[in-house]
Automatic annotation (TrEMBL):
SUPFAM superfamilies: CO dehydrogenase flavoprotein C-terminal domain-like, FAD-binding/transporter-associated domain-like
PROSITE patterns with a match to the protein in the record: FAD_PCMH
UniProt entry keywords in alphabetical sequence: FAD, Flavoprotein, Oxidoreductase
Pfam families in alphabetical order: CO_deh_flav_C, FAD_binding_5
Span of domain FAD-binding PCMH-type: 1-176
Keyword Flavoprotein applies: yes
Superkingdom of origin organism: Bacteria
InterPro entries: CO_DH_flav_C, CO_DH_flav_C_dom_sf, Diverse_Substr_Oxidored, FAD-bd_PCMH, FAD-bd_PCMH-like_sf, FAD-bd_PCMH_sub1, FAD-bd_PCMH_sub2, Mopterin_DH_FAD-bd
Gene3D superfamilies found in the cross-reference section: 3.30.465.10, CO dehydrogenase flavoprotein, C-terminal domain (3.30.390.50), Uridine Diphospho-n-acetylenolpyruvylglucosamine Reductase, domain 2 (3.30.43.10)
Protein name (record): Xanthine dehydrogenase family protein subunit M
């Protein structure tokens, strides 16, 4: 199928893009187009106007600011995946991006575009949430930062205003000495996750877990933190029993109904297994550090 007719506009600055959004209600931003164009072809999206932001120079950079990774709205997945500076600050970016679709898609698709698309099974929204990151929105009233846990509202639904454009996303650096891990299960490599989990774990001088962050995607209507799992392991030495309890606690976060890919019961089983894996891997990394 082909998309419905639309007007095509090119913005040369972020301010111009915001102005065009205000002047053309219902317009959509075009960056990589790897999610938007297929949706238009299948008539799942029918914007009357597309605003191309690829000619805005300051949206194509990856910047390390105060140790955090700021990703412009036009940065391709592949560029972020291959950035050594981004990897040094937050290795979870590369670990997760390796699972995003396939290289040809990552060569065109943008990380910020994936965040705005907000598929509940997508990896990068979950990594932003796990890292405690945020997006920066530009609108007629200026710019504002939106924390990840406030940005993702539901499957393919965010808190971005209709007259706002997300100009960047910031992924905080991992704490010094923290261990990290990411694991995913999909039907085929490059598919959306049936379940995926990420972990960031810190240990104290006594060897016990002093802080933990875990998040998952593919198991609910949006990416979610796993606070019950975090509470189960903080203060422990991560014995086999502690890790097993973490897996059992993870099951409680699964709210996705049965679908063509998996039943709810199967997702619970997957999430428990993946959680045990990432907790062990992240903990082992803290010992290595």
């Amino acid at each position: 199928m082909k998309p419905p007719l639309f007007d095509y506009l090119v913005a040369r600055s972020s301010d111009e893009a915001v102005r065009l959004l205000s002047e053309h209600p219902g317009a959509m931003i075009l960056a990589g187009g790897q999610s938007l164009i297929p949706a238009m072809n299948f008539r799942l999206a029918s914007p009357a106007t597309l605003i191309d932001i690829n000619r805005i120079p300051d949206l194509s950079s990856i910047d390390i600011i105060d140790g955090n990774v700021r990703v412009g709205a036009a940065v391709r997945h592949r560029d972020l995946e291959q950035s050594d500076a981004a990897f040094a600050a937050n290795p979870l970016l590369r670990a997760a991006l390796h699972h995003v679709a396939h290289v040809p898609i990552r060569n065109r698709g943008t990380t910020v575009g994936s965040l705005c698309h907000a598929d509940a099974a997508a990896e990068m929204p979950m990594i932003l949430l796990l890292s405690g990151g945020w997006v920066t929105a530009a609108g007629p009233s200026g710019r504002r930062e939106i924390a990840a846990d406030e940005f993702f509202e539901f499957h393919m639904t965010t808190s971005r205003g209709e007259d706002e454009m997300i100009v960047s996303a910031t992924f905080p650096a991992l704490p010094a000495g923290a261990g990290h891990a990411f694991a995913e299960f999909a039907r085929r490599k490059g598919d959306y996750a049936i379940a995926a989990v990420g972990a960031i774990i810190e240990r104290g001088a006594d060897g016990k877990v002093s802080a933990a962050r875990l998040a998952a995607c593919g198991i609910a209507s949006r990416p979610v933190r796993l606070p019950d799992v975090e509470a189960a392991i903080v203060g422990t030495a991560l014995s086999d029993a502690d890790v097993a309890l973490a897996g059992e606690r993870a099951k409680e976060a699964v709210t996705a109904p049965d679908d063509n890919n998996a039943t709810t019961a199967y997702r619970k089983h997957l999430l428990a297994s993946l959680t045990r894996r990432v907790v062990r891997e992240a903990a082992d990394m803290t010992r290595e550090g």
